[in-house]
């Protein structure tokens, strides 16, 4: 940035914007190809579905692509009706976003004034912090306890200035969950008159039915304002189309709609999401591949002496005795893109997305080679 631009920024741009570190995404395959000339790299960094999009979703987009010159219905009534049928809530309890992170930003826009606070995990999705700081709020980050949310500490951090609390179940990047009893006790301790609890369930479909874990939908109609977020990016395989949704009481959805951009969810995404909701075969195959892959990676990582964090998502995080950057860089040279968790405040750890069987085995083979060279 030249001196003229720096002067402009200091004169015109709000200091709280200049202080925000940009979001760090997983490295794309194309970027690694440009940088290192590796033609057959595999990406296991961003928790995408290794089976790809739902076949029904792809067919739906192909069948209706000739209508792409027409604006979609802005409020996505057809998709909201389908979500209503799936979750058993009225359609006016749903809002669609260009990814669930857009709805996070809407929530911050709605509630955060300069100096207001939002509580979140210290090692959590960075868009929680960015959304809050974009509106001159303060991100209060609470350290995790054994890689999971310390709910009593988060409750104690609530002040008169707290307006938002972000909790991901399962958490990213650790894949950990909390029990229903722990969560119920946490919710009971929160003031109901001045804050919103945002429950991010981007990975909720990966949690087994018999696992002791709260489900956000059960808390929507309580006395505490709750916004539950889900996405089509993960298990439904539609990350490239950018579509997520929120569930909340009608009054809160109505307020969020006041600041929702028009046509924020494109027509292709809406068509694909509608079809993906009906593709139970794709969902079940994804769960099977993920479950088997997670067991394999957990076993192999522990056999190599790593600390593997127990995960209920479609990824696993493992930690080393020191900075994991050399391992990350070594894997890149082998054509394996994983996620070094430095930007999450966990520089000793790496997160790897569960892939197909051959991808998981290629990752472990490359990891062994890298470890032998260090």
Classified by CATH, the class of the largest domain is Alpha Beta
Straight-line N-to-C gap: 37 Å
Based on the structure given, which CATH architecture of the largest domain is correct? Answer: 3-Layer(aba) Sandwich
Average pLDDT works out at 95
Radius of gyration (Å):
21 Å
Q: Which regions have little confidence, pLDDT < 50, spanning 5+ residues?
A: none
Number of helices, where a helix is a run of at least 4 consecutive DSSP H or I residues: 14
Strand order of the largest sheet: 2-8-7-6-5-3-4
Oligomer: single chain
In total, how many domains does the architecture comprise? 2
Helix content: 25-40%
The profile of the biggest β sheet is:
7 strands, mixed
Structural class: alpha/beta
Beta-strand residue percentage: 5-15%
What is the CATH T-level topology of the largest domain?
Aspartate Aminotransferase, domain 2
Written overview of the protein:
With 374 residues, the protein is α/β, with parallel strands linked by helices. The chain has two domains: 25-52 and 281-373, Aspartate Aminotransferase, domain 1; 55-277, Type I PLP-dependent aspartate aminotransferase-like (Major domain) (Aspartate Aminotransferase, domain 2), CATH 3.40.640. It is 40% helix and 14% strand. It has 14 helices and 13 strands. The chain is globular and about 55 Å long.
Protein traits:
14 helices; alpha/beta; 2 domains; histidinol-phosphate transaminase activity; Aspartate Aminotransferase, domain 2; Aspartate Aminotransferase, domain 1; 374 residues; 7-stranded mixed sheet; 4-stranded antiparallel sheet
């Amino acid at each position: 940035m030249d001196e003229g631009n720096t002067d402009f920024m200091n004169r015109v741009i709000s200091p709280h914007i200049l202080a925000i570190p940009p979001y760090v995404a997983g490295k794309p395959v194309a970027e690694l190809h440009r940088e290192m000339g590796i033609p057959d790299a595999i990406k296991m960094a961003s928790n995408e579905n290794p089976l790809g999009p739902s076949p029904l979703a792809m067919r739906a987009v192909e069948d209706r692509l000739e209508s792409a010159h027409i604006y979609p219905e802005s409020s996505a009534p057809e998709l909201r009706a389908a979500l209503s049928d799936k979750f058993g809530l009225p359609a006016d309890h749903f809002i669609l976003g260009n990814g669930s992170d857009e709805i996070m930003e809407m929530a911050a826009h709605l509630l955060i004034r300069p100096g207001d606070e939002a509580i979140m995990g210290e090692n959590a999705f960075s868009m929680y912090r960015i959304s809050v700081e974009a509106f001159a709020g303060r991100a209060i980050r609470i350290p995790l306890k054994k890689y999971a949310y310390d709910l009593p500490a988060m409750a104690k951090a609530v002040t008169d200035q707290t307006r938002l609390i972000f909790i991901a179940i399962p958490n990213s990047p650790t894949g950990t969950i909390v029990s229903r009893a722990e969560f119920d006790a946490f919710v009971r301790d929160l003031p109901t008159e001045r804050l919103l609890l945002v429950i991010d369930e981007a990975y909720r479909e990966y949690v087994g039915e018999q696992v002791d874990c709260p489900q956000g939908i059960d808390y929507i109609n309580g006395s505490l304002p709750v916004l539950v977020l889900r996405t089509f990016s993960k298990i439904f395989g539609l990350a490239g189309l950018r579509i997520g949704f929120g569930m909340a009481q009608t009054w809160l959805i109505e307020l969020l709609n006041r600041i929702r951009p028009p046509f924020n969810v494109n027509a292709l995404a809406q068509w694909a999401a509608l079809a993906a909701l009906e593709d139970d075969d794709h969902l079940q195959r994804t769960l099977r591949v993920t479950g088997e892959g997670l067991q394999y990676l957990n076993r192999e990582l522990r056999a190599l002496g790593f600390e593997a964090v127990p995960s209920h998502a479609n990824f696993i995080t493992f930690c080393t005795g020191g900075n994991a950057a050399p391992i990350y860089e070594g894997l890149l040279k082998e054509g394996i893109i994983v996620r070094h968790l430095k930007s999450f405040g966990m520089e000793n750890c790496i997160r790897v997305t569960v892939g197909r069987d051959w991808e998981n085995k290629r990752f472990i083979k490359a990891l062994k080679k890298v470890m032998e060279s260090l």
